[in-house]
């Protein structure tokens, strides 16, 4: 079918009668795998799921939620809710951020793009700051991509580089931050040998510093801002390896929740605050946990927290994180262009939809579901309900889902 033949008109469903309500319920994080003692879903008592499966085995279908089936580079790439909701919402497979960045780095196209050219203008007199998740998880970012970008930036003229790390332990083992920091520091030493002034400048755990999502807690982004931009944090160290090792000595510490720290020189001065004339790149390819920090860097008018100082920088995202808001306006790799999602089809056919979730997953059933697009297709036909999540308390401490009361029909 040529593109001009395209129509949003849906044919009648062969089985589901018109006028019925249909619920799509996403069990985010649920899956079937090898039945052994390491499989927590297999080991747990799951009477509702068991009865659903036994009650209608002919209707029980497994779908793949990882690897190329959801647009990720290889079978070894675990699924995650961005790629899962994108694929389910669109009903089609799109090459995802991880794959697009891999390609842009391998082909060198990343350095020819408008985004890189834009930040490159700061290389002569300013510092290049890279902010993002230091991890091999492949869900929000990948260490090998950061390594390639560091090398490529240096080859393309960056003379002074500062990396602001966010430790993971959520998409990879808790404690793995130490190994990742070692690897990164070794790479930075190699760059120093080539005459590049390259260092880790600040850090903190992803869930406590910078990587909040869906505006659940701006305090998280502020902690990152203070360390990365202002060079201020409750903990100061001479190296990131020392920082991560020392902070992890607290028996309650975990990579995800490490407090913010800055690296200081022999005079206790932060080695890498973000200053006028610098370039900043947020290196995560996944959008949800980068949108808030992107707003803090991008928006002149901003009131979510007191930035104290708003440096005049050239800022780019690894990808554009929100296609609707065009946020950020500069980016190194074009995001997947996910169009004709199910939500768009439904409104074009006059069908009402209702999406509901707690704050921390709200964008999953709206933004990701609609192809990384914020807002409504048609506000008259769509209703989105966000049930506020707790902030400042983690789900392992308070796991119970919240309820809300909705009058039906809407
Ligand atoms: O919390 C998140 O950001 C990811 C894991 O990194 O989980 P999910 O894909 O389920 O949102």
Automatic annotation (TrEMBL):
It catalyses: (2R)-2-phosphoglycerate = (2R)-3-phosphoglycerate. Residues 102-322 form the BPG-independent PGAM N-terminal domain. SUPFAM superfamilies: 2,3-Bisphosphoglycerate-independent phosphoglycerate mutase, substrate-binding domain, Alkaline phosphatase-like. One of its GO terms (molecular function) is manganese ion binding. Pathway: Carbohydrate degradation; glycolysis; pyruvate from D-glyceraldehyde 3-phosphate: step 3/5. InterPro entries: Alkaline_phosphatase_core_sf, BPG-indep_PGM_N, Metalloenzyme, PGAM_B_sf, Pgm_bpd_ind. Its cofactor is Mn(2+). GO terms for biological process: glucose catabolic process; glycolytic process; response to blue light; response to carbon dioxide; stomatal movement. This is phosphoglycerate mutase (2,3-diphosphoglycerate-independent).
